[in-house]
Specification:
about 180 residues; alpha/beta; 6-stranded mixed β-sheet; 3-stranded antiparallel β-sheet; 3 helices; about 20% helix; binds inosinic acid; binds magnesium ion
C-alpha cells in the first residue's frame, strides 16, 4: 500500500494538533447556537470523527453520501445518494468535507442547503484546501491546511476507494 506514497505531506500528529485549534475555534464561534454538522462521506469520515470530538458544544450530525471523483480527475458531476435532507430549518449548518479542489462538490451542496432548507446560516469546513483556480466559486470558512495541486490520499482521502485508512496525508503516485 505505502509503495504508492511518494512522500508524507502531513503527519498524523500535525493533523491532530491543527484539529485541536479548529475544534476550539468552532466551539467559540457556535457557542449558544443550534448547530447541525453535515459531513460529506466517504472522504470526511475520519476528519469528522477526530474534529467533532474536539468541539465542545451540543450539536447534531448528519452524513451525506456524495461522489464525484474517478481516479485522479474530477468528473464534474455530483452524485447524491441522499434522498431526503434531515431538518436543518432555523439551525446553523456547518458542512464538512475532506478537501476543496474544483469547488463543485461544496458549491453544489451549499447551494442545495440554501435553496431547499430554511437553515439560518451555511458555512463550510475542509481539512485540505487546494490552492488552485476553482471551477466553482466557493471558499471554505474553516480550513486545516493549504496544499498545492497534488493528488493526495490518506486520513479519509482515497484513490479509487483505497488508502483511506492511512493515518497521515501522503502524495499519491502511480506504481510503475
Ligand atoms: P471538488 O468537487 O473538485 O472540490 O472535489 C471534491 C472531492 O473530490 C473531494 O471531496 C474529494 O473526495 C475528491 N478529491 C479532490 N482532490 C482530491 C485529492 O487530491 N485526493 C483525493 N480525493 C480528492
Ligand atoms: Mg473522494
Amino acid at each position: 500500500m505505502e509503495n504508492n506514497i511518494e512522500k508524507i505531506l502531513i503527519h498524523e500528529q500535525t493533523i491532530l494538533s491543527r484539529l485541536d485549534e479548529l475544534g476550539e475555534q468552532i466551539t467559540k464561534d457556535y457557542e449558544n447556537k443550534e448547530l447541525t454538522v453535515v459531513a460529506i462521506l466517504n472522504g470526511s469520515l475520519i476528519f469528522m470523527a477526530d474534529l467533532l470530538r474536539r468541539v465542545r458544544i451540543p450539536l447534531k450530525v448528519d452524513c451525506w453520501s456524495v461522489s464525484s471523483y474517478h481516479g485522479t480527475k474530477t468528473t464534474g458531476k455530483i452524485n447524491f445518494r441522499q434522498q431526503t435532507i434531515n431538518d436543518v430549518d432555523h439551525r446553523c449548518v456547518l458542512l464538512l468535507d475532506d478537501i476543496l479542489d474544483s469547488g463543485l462538490t461544496l458549491k453544489t451542496i451549499k447551494d442545495k442547503l440554501i435553496s431547499e432548507t430554511q437553515a439560518l446560516d451555511v458555512k463550510t469546513c475542509v481539512l485540505l484546501n487546494k490552492k488552485i483556480q476553482r471551477a466553482a466559486e466557493v471558499e471554505a470558512d474553516y480550513k486545516g491546511f493549504d496544499i498545492g495541486d497534488e493528488f493526495v490520499v490518506g486520513y479519509g482521502l482515497d484513490y479509487n476507494g483505497h488508502f483511506r485508512n492511512l493515518p497521515y496525508i501522503g502524495v499519491y503516485h502511480e506504481q510503475v
